[in-house]
TrEMBL record:
Lineage: Eukaryota, Metazoa, Chordata, Craniata, Vertebrata
SUPFAM superfamilies: His-Me finger endonucleases
UniProt KW keywords: Membrane, Signal, Transmembrane, Transmembrane helix
GO function term, MF aspect, one: metal ion binding
Record's protein name: ENDD1 protein
Signal peptide region: 1-23
UniProt-listed Pfam families: Endonuclease_NS
Keyword presence, Membrane: yes
Transmembrane stretches, start-end: 327-347, 359-381, 440-463
Span of domain DNA/RNA non-specific endonuclease/pyrophosphatase/phosphodiesterase: 63-275
Limits of the ENPP1-3/EXOG-like endonuclease/phosphodiesterase domain: 64-262
């Protein structure tokens, strides 16, 4: 039987401050599962899971790694979760989380958040992972590969993520958690001398059956364990979905053959064939006793029946008080959340108003100082420009006055000079005029002589031509 333990404080923490839960998708450039490699012997994760739809998730809580999960976005279920045993504890209230980066890799939320609080902050929510709505009305429960009852406090809170859950029938889910809990607590822990070196892998093999055409139902569940101690041993267990009471033991090598080709669950010393057969046989003997104990539990043993009836009656009597306590806790949590939210809004408004006022005052002061500075800087420039313009204007006036006097004085002076120079220019022009007249008369005389000579030459040529034409003709007649 599990030890009863109250963890209301941690439930309040996860309800009021869901941001403490973190589950980041491991990048391709990181080795293995990054900081979650501590959940594998030798910090070497299993080999052979290389499909592009396999996503590595390092499940964290309070900024500490709690377990590792290999998630299939195709089947929308985890293929395995790797964890270490912490301490058995009673399962507390469920607060389910989702991993935003599985559906939206570009999302700025690098941590798990409560599904109820996620709102519209994640694009394509549910495209690559299962949601609570996929289980509602399907007849299946969210069965945890890493059972919450094998963990306590922070480790237990971190298990309630949909990336750690597979669809199981209520009876199978109860049987799986019960069997794995007993195997770990009664068979594995007592026979491992170093419990902090007990590495556990719990996984599922997807089938073609799907919940609402989206989430694959496992065809079987499996568990692989390795005690990496001086007396080393490994163990494999398989539970068929078709038989909730089945629990077959086999070697890790045999288990690997039932998974994907070339899968190696354990590397390093845990992957070696050299093991302590004595320890392994002792573990298998306890597993066999657990199996037979399950069968005995289904017989008509009166003592077991009476004990079961007592538990049922106690449960029926205690249920109203438990529900009332849950209601009171829920109301208290909601009140605390409302108070925090109200205070946050008030503080946000007050601080926002103050900051807006300070910002406006600062902008006004800066604008005023800027305008004053520009005016002060431009005063010397404007004064200098006025002085220069006045000086240039004065020079222009002086120039115009001198120009006017020049124009007034230049009219009579020019006239007198031209009048005085007329006789001089007239007398000086007489020789040139006489020369031009003589030249003209001589040219005319020469032109007449040339014309007369040309006419006479023309007559001479005509007469000579006539003589040459007729005189030879007369001689031939004689």
């Amino acid at each position: 039987e599990w030890t009863m333990k109250t963890s209301i404080v941690f439930l309040l923490c996860i309800s009021v401050f869901p941001g403490f839960s973190q589950g980041r998708v491991v990048r391709e450039d990181e080795t293995g599962f990054a900081e979650c490699n501590v959940f594998f012997p030798g910090q070497d994760p299993p080999e052979g899971f290389t499909e592009p739809f396999h996503v590595k998730i390092c499940q964290q809580y309070n900024k500490e790694p709690r377990f590792a999960t290999l998630y299939s976005t195709k089947d929308k279920i985890p293929l395995y979760s790797a964890f270490k045993f912490t301490k058995p504890a009673q399962s507390e209230e469920e607060s389910w989380l989702v991993e935003p980066q599985v559906d939206d890799p570009e999302n700025g939320l690098h941590e798990m958040v409560r599904e109820a609080d996620i709102g519209d902050t994640v694009a394509n929510l549910g495209a690559n992972q299962a949601l609570t709505s996929d289980y509602v009305g399907s007849g299946y429960e969210r069965g945890l590969l890493n059972p919450s009852l094998l963990n306590e406090e922070d480790f237990q809170v971190a298990t309630y993520t949909l990336t750690n859950a597979v669809p199981l029938s209520p009876a199978l889910s109860k049987s799986w958690h019960r069997d794995i809990g007993k195997v770990v607590e009664q068979a594995l822990i007592p026979h491992c001398s170093k419990t902090d070196h007990l590495y556990i892998l719990a996984g599922a093999i997807p089938s073609s059956v799907q919940v609402k055409g989206k989430v694959s139902v496992p065809e079987s569940l499996w568990l692989a364990a390795c005690c990496d101690a001086p007396e080393r041993w490994t163990l494999g267990l398989v539970k068929k979905i078709s038989d909730e009471n089945s629990l077959a033991d086999l070697t890790v090598r045999e288990l690997e053959k039932q998974l994907l080709p070339e899968v190696h669950l354990f590397k390093g010393s845990c992957g070696e064939d050299k093991q302590s057969q004595e320890k392994r046989e002792a573990v298998l003997q306890v597993v066999s006793q657990i199996r037979s104990g399950e069968q005995v539990g289904t017989s008509n043993n009166q003592e077991t029946k009476d004990s079961g009836w007592v538990r049922r009656v106690a449960g029926i009597v205690a249920t109203p008080f438990i529900k009332l306590l849950e209601l009171l806790i829920y109301i208290f949590v909601e009140l605390v959340k409302f108070v925090f939210y109200f205070l946050w809004l008030v503080m946000k408004r007050v601080v926002g108003t103050i900051l807006d006022g300070v910002y406006g005052l600062w902008n006004g002061m800066v604008s005023y100082l800027k305008a004053i500075s520009i005016v002060l800087i431009r005063i010397p420039y404007d004064v200098g420009r006025v002085i220069v313009n006045v000086y240039l204007g004065f020079l222009q006036i002086v120039r115009d006055v001198f120009s006017l006097f020049y124009r007034i004085l230049s009219i009579p002076v020019g006239f007198v000079l031209h009048l005085a120079a007329f006789p001089y220019h007239t007398i000086c022009a007489i020789p040139s005029v006489l020369k031009d007249m003589v030249t003209g008369i001589g040219g005319t005389f020469l032109l007449v002589i040339d014309t007369t000579a040309t006419v006479l030459q023309g007559f001479y040529c005509i007469a000579g031509h006539i003589v040459k034409r007729f005189i030879p003709k007369g001689s031939s007649d004689d």
